[in-house]
């Protein structure tokens, strides 16, 4: 198994390269920086399509930024290389561009590659369905370098609550005189230190409070999930795939 890794100098790029080394997966680091990184050469991202064509990796694992991921998806489509991307913060147009790439190659997108968050999503659905009328508040915390807010995982969990429960809209933070309204979902975002990722859903009503919390303790959990996804997606037909399909396999 050999995977190309874009964003090789990034936090997640480094975690993926480290996790791949531990499981004996060969990596082909790719970076805008195109410099020597901790003992191995990175290929230049500006030349990605040619790099993918000449090196033929089994998949590209991408944790970068939305604009870059869209470019890298086009390069994968051109070179016939499956794409696994965990980048978050895509606009609708950017998701459409990723979907266009999935006409040519397998594309697996997940805003969170942890198994625990997948279970959290199921538990949140059950709680939202089973506790009608309860107040719901989501709080997420990430490191101070994170760009998008709320996190892609928070967006996914909010969509789950909205599908499963009877909600009226999201309220992002509160300030001044702003009483809670029935059906609203409170959304609270914290950015501090090097927190890997925490998501808490609180359900309150009927003189009781239920909280569901997930805490990632290392980026290794996301890197391992993305590499599992790369192994699963390699050799599949072109199409749009979900991390749930990897977990169900
Ligand atoms: N799905 C998940 O499970 C999961 C988990 C953690 C993080 N994430 C997401 O993964 C993405 C990367 O997170 P991170 O913490 O690794 O970020 P980071 O440390 O800032 O690294 C991002 C890397 O992407 C590359 N890049 C290419 N084009 C870029 C651009 N236009 N702007 C910024 N960077 C660009 C850069 O590497 P080069 O210069 O080497 O190309 C950069 O170092 C974020 O969207 C984050 O939310 C997802």
Task: Pick out its properties.
249 residues; alpha/beta; Rossmann fold; Dihydrodipicolinate Reductase, domain 2; 2 domains; seven-stranded parallel beta sheet; 8 helices; 38% helix; binds NADP nicotinamide-adenine-dinucleotide phosphate
Shape: elongated
Task: Report the average pLDDT across residues.
Answer: 96
Number of domains: 2
Continuous helix count: 8
Can you tell me the CATH architecture of the largest domain? 3-Layer(aba) Sandwich
Distance between the termini: 18 Å
Topology overview:
Blueprint: E1 2-6, H1 11-23, E2 26-31, E3 36-37, E4 40-41, E5 43-44, H2 48-55, E6 59-62, H3 66-79, E7 83-85, H4 92-101, E8 106-109, H5 115-130, E9 135-142, H6 152-164, E10 169-172, E11 184-191, E12 198-205, E13 208-215, H7 220-233, E14 239-241, H8 243-248
Parallel strand pairs: 1-2, 1-6, 2-5, 6-7, 7-8, 8-14, 9-11, 10-11
Antiparallel strand pairs: 3-4, 9-12, 12-13
Helix pairs in contact: 1-7, 2-3, 3-4, 5-6
The chain binds NADP nicotinamide-adenine-dinucleotide phosphate.
Characterise this structure:
With 249 residues, the chain is an alpha/beta fold. The protein folds into two domains: 2-113 and 219-248, NAD(P)-binding Rossmann-like Domain (Rossmann fold, 3-Layer(aba) Sandwich); 115-215, Dihydrodipicolinate Reductase, domain 2, CATH 3.30.360. The protein has eight helices and 14 strands. The strands form three sheets. It has a seven-stranded parallel β-sheet, sandwiched between helices. Helix 4 (92-101) links the parallel strand 7 and strand 8 (106-109). Helix 2 packs across helix 3 (66-79) and helix 3 packs parallel to helix 4. The mean pLDDT is 96. The protein binds NADP nicotinamide-adenine-dinucleotide phosphate. NADP nicotinamide-adenine-dinucleotide phosphate is lined by residues 7-13, 31-33, 45, 63-65, 67-68, 86-89, 110-113, 145, 222.
């Amino acid at each position: 198994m050999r995977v190309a890794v874009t964003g090789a100098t990034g936090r997640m790029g480094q975690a993926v390269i480290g996790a791949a080394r531990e499981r004996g997966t060969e990596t082909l680091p790719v970076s805008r920086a195109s410099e020597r990184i901790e003992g191995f050469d990175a290929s230049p991202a500006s030349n990605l399509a040619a790099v993918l064509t000449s090196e033929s990796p089994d998949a590209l694992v991408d944790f970068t930024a939305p604009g870059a991921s869209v470019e890298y998806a086009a390069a994968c489509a051109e070179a016939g290389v499956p794409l696994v991307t965990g980048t978050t913060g895509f606009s609708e147009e950017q998701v459409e561009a990723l979907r266009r790439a999935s006409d040519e190659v397998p594309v697996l997108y997940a805003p969170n590659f942890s198994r625990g968050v997948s279970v959290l999503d199921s538990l949140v659905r059950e709680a939202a369905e089973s506790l009608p009328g309860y107040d719901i508040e989501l709080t997420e915390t990430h490191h101070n370098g994170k760009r998008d807010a709320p996190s892609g995982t928070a967006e996914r969990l909010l969509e789950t609550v909205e599908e499963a429960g009877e909600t009226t809209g999201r309220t992002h933070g509160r300030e001044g005189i702003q009483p809670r309204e029935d059906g609203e979902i409170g959304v609270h975002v914290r950015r501090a230190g090097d927190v890997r990722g925490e998501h808490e859903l609180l359900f309150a009503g009927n003189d009781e409070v239920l909280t569901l919390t997930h805490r990632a303790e290392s980026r290794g959990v996301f890197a391992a999930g993305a590499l599992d996804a790369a192994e699963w997606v390699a050799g599949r037909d072109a199409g749009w795939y979900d991390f749930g399909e990897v977990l169900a396999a």
